[in-house]
Amino acid sequence: SPDLVDGPRNCALRDLAGGWEAGVACLADIGFSERxxxxxxxxxxxxxxxxxxxxxxxxxxxxxxxxxxxxLNPCLQCDEDESGSxxxxxxxxxxxxSGLQSGITRGDEEIADVSHDYWRACxxxxxxxxxxxxxxxxxxxxx
Length: 143
Known about the structure:
The protein has 5 helices and no strands. It is mostly helical. Helix 1 crosses helix 3, helix 2 crosses helix 3 (about 35-60) and helix 3 (about 35-60) packs antiparallel against helix 4 (about 75-90). The mean pLDDT is about 75.
């Protein structure tokens, strides 16, 4: 699954060491547009201001994104609590409300059911059929 945790975290460290331009350039290198890079870097700076201790400890301890009980590690939880609402207000989209999985495990009820059909032209018909069957099975489970 796409990893939008480690890459941006490394870019936030570049911002800390090399300044704003270094952080934005790092985010651009991993595929962010300039505007998205600005939003993510502001988010990272806010998280650093409010969650530095939790995040340094999580990195030092090598904590996974999700703890054994399924909760977020203390750094990610602090980020969500301190920066999440501002990020959503400014960016307008999150991975969850866009239906995108990430390196952070979330419950199915937290991920929007959004169909991203632009890839269909590139997928062999057997894989497409398997994907449709999986979606039908998932919908039956919800009922």
